[in-house]
Amino acid sequence: MQINMTVVAIVVIYLIAMLFIGWYSSTRITSNADFMVAGRRLGPFLMAGTLAATEIGGGSSLGVVQNGMGTYGISAAWYIMTMGFAFVILTFLAPKFRAATVKTVPEYFRRRYGKSSGLITAIIMLLPLIGLTAGQFIASAVVLSTMLGISYSMATVIVAVVVTIYAIMGGLWSVTLTDFIQVFLIIAGMIIAVPFATNLAGGWDNVVANVPAEAFDLFSGYSLTDVIGLTVMYVATFTVGQEAVSRYYAARDGKAAKQGSIMAAIINFIFAFIPAVLGVIILALINMGSFDADAFAGVGARYALPVLAMEAMPAIICGLLFAGIISATMSSADSDLLGAGSIFANDIYRAVLKPDATNEEVMKVTKITMLLVGVASMFIALFNTSSIVTLLMYCFTLRAAGSFFPYVLGHYWKGASTAGTIASLIGGSAVVVWLEQLKMSIFGMTFSQPIIPGLLVGLALFVVFSMVMPPKVQTTELAYEED
To answer: What integer is the mean pLDDT of 410-434?
Structure first.
């Protein structure tokens, strides 16, 4: 496959632009609040862009295309549509999140339930962020290696270096500004790709004629139960996931948080079917013999969309699409990096290791942690062969099962206690790991989404232990900490 230098130039310019935004954002950083939550000044449009971009990543671009050309067909869109449902539901919780004026989820647990709860939450939430970052590095490296004709390993290193540098330089300011650009790049790039792919197939009628009828069944890959399970998973993980909930913390007020959440949902609804349709078109091209599956067979079906773009699209359009796909994955990776750095520095270093640390020391530790997580995620990406979507879903599920109810109900229920929280954190997470690793069923039912039994166990433990061992002082107010 011949490499077009116009395509290369467009993507290189895009990568340089991201680094410039990181440098520019660094000039606006004067405090930890600026670095971790953008000074709590995000309006609804920036909120919407950064929320949508954070969750539209490798799984929502290359992963959904891969599923669309497989057994899922058009139903692969549910993976993204259910994110939109989750953002709609979170609209009702957004003002509460903003009103807490915390910087991280573990900080909320520490100030609400005590240091032990904060530390356990920090550990549970820190580890999956490494896996999430690795998943986004994988997706970005897929595009770069295909486009430049370089090895997957070299592409992974390039992606890791660029993302880590601009995220470290500007914190949430740089992440938000780059996200705002990236979310429109990915949507525009993939929308433009659809007519070119359809034209290569000889028109939409040819696409329909060369794929199984079930490819257009909205429930061929996901059942109604799966859709509900995905929605529950996203609500749970967006609520407690640092890379998502930090946007609500960063909103200028509760109204902006609500408006941004609704707008992010609309973006997801618009985008959902685009990668799924591209996957179906690629399947038709393969069945017609117009597209050689061997072109990506050696490295996996996740290479299908980049290979198609190089064969079917003009260089400028192809470059924009590639920049868009890289945008999707990088916009998620930078958020995961920042989340990991913020949690370690704010909730392990300052809260446990060095309580008298200055703001300058905390910011330095945040950046060092981001660097280390970037390197660790790079090595995981270099050797990972798992499905992107599977990796992301497992990480999402692990951190959310035990923490969701203590976090949400803690805003409303004065009787929520430390004992109930710790029981939920440990029990809910253990159930997820157990079901995921052993693939076991409960009462004859096999759960494709272990988040549901994990949440149920977490809720039961939280309520029972809170009632048996109630808090000494019943209140929803947080303990005071200096910002």
So the answer is: 91
Give tens-digit pLDDT for 23-60: 888 887 777 777 888 788 889 998 988 888 888 876 67
Kindly list the structural domains of the chain, giving each domain's residue range(s) and its CATH number in brackets, ordered by start: 5-400 (1.20.1730.10)
Whether the predicted pLDDT of 476 surpasses 60: yes
Q: Determine the angle formed by the axes of helices 315-344 and 152-200, rounding to 10 degrees.
A: 130
Predicted pLDDT of residue 81: 95
Higher pLDDT, 462 or 2: 462
The least confident of 32-46, 128-142, 384-398, 462-476 is: 384-398
Closest CA to 291 of 263, 318, 312: 312
Biggest CA–CA distance in the chain, Å, is 71
Quote the pLDDT of residue 444. 42
Q: Which two tokens stand for residue 245?
A: 């909930």
What whole-number distance in Å separates Cα of residue 282 and Cα of residue 66? Answer: 9
